[in-house]
Write a structure and sequence with these properties.
alpha/beta; TIM Barrel; 2 domains; 5-stranded parallel sheet; about 20% strand
Length: about 375
């Protein structure tokens, strides 16, 4: 198959190429060459498939997703998760990291996709989130108390088939009674979990909104901070020292605040989201300007934050962080893929043929990501 690009963004920060043919064989990019002769598909712009490093498949953007999950039987959660995975793929997301859910649902969907029994994006799944007793997300998590229990919990997730581990370092917005700014898991608990996970070549993400929890998680050795909205100067130094990634999930609090008046969300969710948004707008741009590695991830599934709207996260990275369009696209492809570790998120010889065909130059107008002309994963057109 030959795909012709009027302009090609390969996922890197290199200057885009014009009039390029991509030769695709057996689901892999075999060659990039100057355009010429016949082609099978043609588009004004071609980019790598998008990579969402933070998406909760069991949640569908309901005003109160936690109550919805608790009210749903496991079979219904599984069906919702399959639907959301397929919505993601059709919208251009060819790879996701599912950082914690219930009943090993994401793990089973991952396996079914890999075996060809379901269509969906590539999935890296965390299994249960690991939280303190009564901590944020406890009702869909594995509660731990103490470093040795943390190690055991990591081993349990590995046994269940998890690819990665998710720790809860602070309170969160959606759990009633949890305070986003307060630390939860102790540094020594997270250090034990990181050590155990890394022994088994599993990467570790930490939900961390509050300042102390962010720094505790970074000192403990996590590979990424999810949210990170209340980071301070010391946290920036820790990011630089450790090389950890930041997944800012800009869409999540933004959507809650935008629907605050008529969205039907619990009052505590709106109140906490407004507080978090103030910190987010001030601090995440500082992180980007300080050189912290920003990886795209939307927290899809949170209120009014839909799985088929990942383009909004890319657009917000440009709007709120001051990124160029190409930098935002790079964060949502190559950088997010580097964090997840399934592939490199770039279009070059030897890499998976995950690509979007777009009607306009994404480097000039990221809104074209909202409606891809076609989505290919491993050379197969989604929805075909």
């Amino acid at each position: 198959m030959i795909v012709r690009a009027g302009i090609l963004y390969d996922g890197s920060l290199n200057a885009p190429r014009k009039n390029v043919d991509l030769l695709i064989e057996d689901g892999v990019v075999r060659e990039l060459r100057d355009a010429g002769g016949k082609c099978d598909h043609e588009a004004a712009c071609v980019t790598p498939g998008l990579v969402n490093a933070h998406a909760h498949l069991e949640m569908s953007g309901e005003p109160d997703p936690m109550s919805a999950i608790l009210a749903m039987p496991p079979l219904e959660r599984m069906l919702r998760a399959v639907e959301n995975a397929q919505k993601s793929l059709r919208a251009g997301v060819t790879t996701i990291r599912e950082p914690g859910g219930s009943e090993a649902i994401a793990i089973r969907i991952r396996d079914a996709v890999n075996e060809g029994r379901l269509t969906g994006p590539r999935i890296s799944a965390a299994g249960f989130i690991l939280c303190m007793t009564g901590g944020h997300g406890w009702f869909i998590g594995r509660e731990i108390d103490g470093p040795w229990d943390a190690r055991k919990a990591v081993r349990e997730q590995r046994k269940a088939g998890a690819d990665c581990i998710k720790l809860i370092a602070t309170g969160g917005v959606l759990t009633k009674g949890a305070v986003p700014g307060l630390a939860q898991l102790l540094e020594e608990e997270m250090r034990a979990a990181c050590d155990e996970a890394h022994r088994h070549h599993m990467r570790v993400a930490a939900h961390a909104i509050g300042t102390q929890g962010i720094k505790d998680a970074l000192r403990a050795g996590v590979d990424s901070i999810e949210h990170g909205h209340m980071l301070d100067d010391e946290a920036l130094e820790l990011f630089a020292r450790t090389g950890a990634y930041l997944v800012p999930t800009l869409t999540a609090p933004t959507c809650i605040v935008e629907h605050a008046e008529k969205g039907g969300q619990p009052e505590y969710v709106v109140r906490k989201a407004r507080e978090v948004s103030e910190h987010m707008l001030k601090n995440i741009r500082r992180a980007f300007e300080a050189g912290v590695k920003i990886a795209g991830g939307s927290d899809a599934g949170t209120p009014f934050n839909y799985h088929d709207a990942y383009a909004e996260e890319v657009i917000l990275m440009q709007k709120l962080l001051g990124m160029t369009a190409q930098q935002a696209l790079h964060a949502a492809t190559a950088t997010a893929a580097e964090l997840i570790g399934l592939h490199r998120g770039v279009l070059e010889a030897g890499e998976p043929a995950d690509l979007l065909l777009l009607d306009r130059d994404a480097g000039k107008d990221l809104t074209t990501l909202r409606a891809p002309r076609a989505v290919f994963k491993a050379g197969i057109r989604a929805g075909a």
